[in-house]
Amino acid sequence: MNIILLGPPGAGKGTQARRLEKERGLIQLSTGDMLREARTSGTEMGRKVAAIMDAGELVTDDIVIGLIEEKLKSGEGRGFIFDGFPRTLAQADALEDLLARHGQKLDAVIELRVDDDALVKRISGRYTCGDCGEVYHDDTKPSAEAGKCDKCGSTNLKRRADDNPEALKTRLMEYYKKTSPLIGYYYAKGLLHPVDGLAPIEDVARQIAGILDRIGSP
Ligand code: ADP
Ligand code: AMP
Known about the structure:
9 helices; three-stranded antiparallel sheet; alpha/beta; single chain
């Protein structure tokens, strides 16, 4: 099963993708995580994308499509959760081609609906474990012990450079201009499943599980 988690920055895509990995044996493909890894690698591509990401703008389609293509080539497991990809219509077309070339298809697009005020609160309180990637929030999901990851015990908890009000404004603008047209695109294909992303994490997970169970059973 291949699914897309679609929604603005801070909607909860990463949080839900990590749960789905554990619960359903799917593999999370986050282009944001891949790009953050690339920027620490000191490569030419890493240098190119760093400034774009910090400003909150979108990286060029060819770079992210290339990253996804690499992962699909090496792909094993029961399918993928695309998290933060596609973000443009060109990326959506490329994904369809790539999946077809690998004898696969898209099964569902889960749209996490969250309003802008909630996004600002989510982004300003987000921190993640630099070692295992677990996602936390100051108010809604704090780590049990301050400064220590519940999952792996690491004390390497970090805030993202682009999780600031200025970059968030640009990220939201990019989302509405370039990514939100995908909602209509996937609706027309009969693949869109909206979910109330304002609900607590457990409730959102239950809504998604209901959808995947429905489409998974013949
Ligand atoms: P995205 O991957 O869409 O950018 P994240 O999964 O990183 O979003 O979530 C953004 C922030 O909001 C994180 O701090 C996370 O802990 C918190 N969060 C995620 N889902 C919910 C939810 N349903 N209710 C409250 N907070 C949430
Ligand atoms: P995310 O971790 O999904 O919030 O992404 C962080 C940043 O990485 C974005 O603001 C973009 O600069 C870049 N990025 C991630 N995914 C994509 C994508 N599919 N297309 C273009 N840029 C992306």
